[in-house]
Amino acid sequence: MALDQTPEGLYLLPSAQKHADGTPRFTLSLPPSYNADPGLSLLAKLEAEHAGF
């Protein structure tokens, strides 16, 4: 999954849940090493690929 990244290196993961206008209800900020953490990695995968955590 390709995520937008801030200048500080944080990855931005928009929520699967959307407002009526289609914008995400919230955005998760993930550290650059989120894939090394099994819990964060699973949360990101479920949020991005399976309609939310």
Descriptive account of the structure:
This protein is an alpha+beta fold and 53 residues long. It has one domain. It has one helix and three strands. The protein has a three-stranded antiparallel sheet, covered by helices on one side. Strand 1 and strand 2 (11-14) form a beta hairpin. The protein is flat and about 35 Å long. The model has no long low-confidence stretch (mean pLDDT 91).
Instruction: Output the radius of gyration.
Output: 11 Å
- Helix fraction, binned, reads 10-25%
Question: Structural class of the helices, strands and pairings?
Answer: alpha+beta
**Any idea how many domains?**
1
On the 0 to 100 scale, the average pLDDT is 91
Which sheet architecture does the biggest sheet show?
3 strands, antiparallel
In total, how many beta strands?
A: 3
Index terms:
53 residues, alpha+beta, three-stranded antiparallel sheet
Compact description:
The protein is built from one helix and three strands. It has one helix spanning 38-49, and strands at 4-5, 11-14, 27-30.
